[in-house]
Q: What sequence folds into this?
């Protein structure tokens, strides 16, 4: 176990619920996956994944023809990742963080990160990527950003957060859009570190409808929710479930997947 709340590192708490994370976190659009493969020069390329998690991006990219070295620092997440990629000969799982791992120079056609780049030390991540990617290769960074839309359910959930977790209320899923911060920081870094051409941004809009249980499970994989004391989290989730059940037992989440892509020069 990870010890007390004070000792837990937020970027690693996902491992506490690795199986739930794998079930609850959404996939990535097929169009985005195809564009990431193109960033590697097409099928057959050698890719380095930073923060692979349980393989939500690893698996579709490997099945699309990339050979993937997948870095994952959390042992519980890495365990699920190994299981999910066991039948994929082109995937090698490395239990390590990007900051302390030493890539061979120009060894990869692509460095990519799905939903994890913002957890890697700023500055170090871009320099490491520049070292790892061959000239002409690419970097691809992507995230899913979900919202609830302006609906009565969202209003009712906001009231629950205000009562049960006021510090999280302003960050209720969909309330604060982290895309400008994460994409802006990553873009500025890639431009400042040198060695990369212009950073191209692409968006992919889609929508998911999930059940009460699925929504609560998804929230349970969010790092800020995981950092709540267990009893406070249980009370919050019970009231959230009541709200979604009362609205028909499902919630619709408009989602935008965002991709940053740059070419090594």
A:
């Amino acid at each position: 176990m990870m010890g007390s709340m004070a000792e837990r590192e937020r970027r690693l708490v996902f491992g506490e619920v690795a199986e739930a994370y794998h079930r609850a976190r959404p996939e990535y659009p097929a169009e985005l996956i195809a564009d990431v493969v193109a960033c590697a020069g097409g099928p057959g390329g050698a890719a380095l994944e930073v923060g692979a998690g349980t393989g939500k991006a690893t698996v579709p990219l490997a099945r699309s023809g990339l050979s993937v070295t997948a870095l994952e620092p959390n042992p519980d997440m890495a365990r699920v990742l190994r299981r999910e990629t066991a039948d994929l000969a082109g995937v090698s799982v490395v239990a390590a963080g990007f900051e302390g791992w030493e890539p061979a120079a120009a060894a990869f056609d692509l460095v990519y990160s799905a939903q994890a780049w913002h957890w890697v030390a700023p500055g170090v991540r871009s320099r490491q990527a520049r070292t790892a990617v061959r000239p002409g290769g690419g970097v691809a960074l992507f995230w899913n950003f979900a919202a609830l839309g302006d609906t009565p359910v969202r209003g009712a959930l906001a009231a629950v957060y205000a009562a049960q977790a006021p510090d999280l209320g302003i960050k209720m899923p969909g309330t604060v859009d982290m895309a400008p911060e994460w994409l802006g920081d990553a873009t500025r870094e890639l431009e400042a570190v040198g060695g990369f051409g212009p950073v191209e941004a692409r968006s992919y809009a889609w929508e998911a409808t999930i059940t009460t249980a699925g929504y609560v499970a998804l929230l349970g994989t969010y790092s800020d929710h995981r950092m709540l004391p267990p009893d406070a989290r249980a009370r919050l989730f019970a009231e959230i479930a009541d709200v979604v059940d009362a609205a028909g037992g499902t919630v619709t989440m408009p989602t935008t997947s965002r991709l940053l892509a740059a070419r090594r020069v």
